[in-house]
Amino acid sequence: MTRLGDLERAVMDVLWDVVPGTSDGVTVREVADALDGRELAYTTVMTVLDRLAGKGMVQREREGRAWRYRPAASREAHIAQLMLDALDLGGSRDAALVRFARSVTGTEAEVLRAALGSEAGLAGPGSVDSDTGGADALTDRVDPPAGRRPAGEAAER
Question: SS3 for 32?
Fold first, then answer.
C-alpha cells in the first residue's frame, strides 16, 4: 500500500471523518471547504482526489457533472494494511511482531488478545466484539497479501 503525502492524508482524514459508510460521498467542493486553514484551489483538491482514486484509496461516482467521493476502506483497515506492509520490509516478521507485542499498553494487548480469540472462535463475554465496546475497531478485516495465508489456514488443493 502506498504511503500518503501530507495533503493526501489531510483529504483522507476529511473523508474518514465526514463520510459515513452509508453515505453517497462528498464533492470536491465539500472536501475543500472541510480543509480548514488550508488555502487550496479547487483544482488542487480535485487533483488529489483523482490521484487517490487512481491509487484505489477512494471510490467515486458521477452525480451530474460532478463526482462524489468516499473512502474505499476505513481508516482502521488502512492502518492495518500499513502495519502489514511494514512487516514485509525485511528481516524477521516474527521478531518484529514480538517487539510490537512487547511495546503495546495493557489495554492494547487485551484488544489484540480478544481479536485473536475472536478469529479463532474463542471470543466470549467481555471480548472486543461483545457489547463492552471496541467493536468498531475490529469490523474491517484486512486480507493477507497475495500468496500469504493467515496462520493455521491450510492451502486449498
Answer: helix
Count Cβ atoms below 10 Å from residue 112 Cβ, excluding itself.
14
Q: Which whole-number Å values give the CA distances from 21 to 17, 25, 140, in the listed order?
A: 10, 9, 12
Among positive and negative, which fits the CA dihedral 147, 128, 109, 6?
Answer: positive
Residue among 84, 78, 85, 60 nearest 140 (CA): 78
Report d(CA 51, CA 93) in Å as an integer.
31
pLDDT band at 1 (very low <50, low <70, confident <90, very high): low
The string of pLDDT tens digits covering residues 28-76 is 999 999 998 888 999 999 999 999 999 999 999 998 999 999 999 999 9
